[in-house]
Amino acid sequence: MHIWVDADACPNPVKEILFRAAQRLAIPVTLIANQPLRTPPSPHIRSIRVASGFDKADDHIVQALAPGDLVITADIPLAAQVIERGGEVLNPRGERYTKDNIRERLNIRDFLDTLRGSGMVTGGPPALTQTDRKRFADALDRLLASLGPRRDP
User: Model confidence over 17-36: pLDDT tens digits?
Assistant: First the structure.
């Protein structure tokens, strides 16, 4: 299993949780972004910088992932593509996207996009809280445990 991170908009505290998990479980984590990223020195953690442009990072993740890989993203269309290809998806607030809920999430996203297009201000997501960080860490641990054996060094 490989963990892919849609890193341009991923909060730093979530990246830190992923770095610790990579080290603890010897799971490869790759951050994909269109800007340079700092990562801790580790044989399990790397970053890839893609060209600037609409969906370049998303396209790279979709092309690189294998069935069973985990993608960390809040991007609903990317999540839908990952699920379609047999991947798992967790957003930075600890919500898991699945075949059972992704269509609803896409519909809500499209509805909000329509509202924004008509001039309604819908606002962005609230700032990541300590509760959100814990929810993400707990969801990540549960998901990793369900997908494969733990390999603590």
Answer: 999 999 999 999 999 999 99
3-state secondary structure string across the chain: CCEEEECCCCCHHHHHHHHHHHHHHCCCEEEEECCCCCCCCCCCEEEEECCCCCCHHHHHHHHHCCCCCEEECCCHHHHHHHHHCCCEEECCCCCEECCCCHHHHHHHHHHHHHHHHCCCCCCCCCCCCHHHHHHHHHHHHHHHHHHCCCCCC
Query: Token digits for 21?
Result: 């998990």
Nearest to 98 by CA among 110, 113, 112, 84: 84
Report the distance separating Cα 77 and Cα 102, nearest Å.
9
Identity of residue 111: F
Model pTM score: 0.85
> Would you say 32 and 50 are in contact if contact means Cβ atoms under 8 Å apart?
yes
Q: Which residues pair with 96 in a beta bridge?
A: 90
Q: Quick one: tokens of 78?
A: 């990317």
Token output for 121: 């201000």
